[in-house]
What we know:
single chain; 111 residues; alpha+beta; two-stranded antiparallel ribbon; 5 helices; 30% helix; 27% strand; globular
Amino acid sequence: MAGIAASVGEAAAVVPINAPGIVVGGGFNHEETIALSNSPIPSILGVQLLAGATAVHVDPRSAIPQKDGMINADMPTIFRDAAAASNGKIVLALVDPAQWRGKHILVAEFL
């Protein structure tokens, strides 16, 4: 995640993500993250069909419960958590399943 986190800086628009295993992705600044959290996208990503294909990274500083690599939250909660942090950001990416344990989508939160 370090390569991805380094790619998510302050910006006025979506920042392309270029990291190993990322096919195409974008990092959203805090204002864009707030807008995303208020959109239907988190709920769409959380539907059962996509949930199994999605890898999720939650910032270690998050209050969202995590145990043994498992995150105990739905997708809207993860987006709201990032939006509520003073500098929270979200990354969305399509990833190479061969490098991401069979997952096709990455949702990553950085606080």
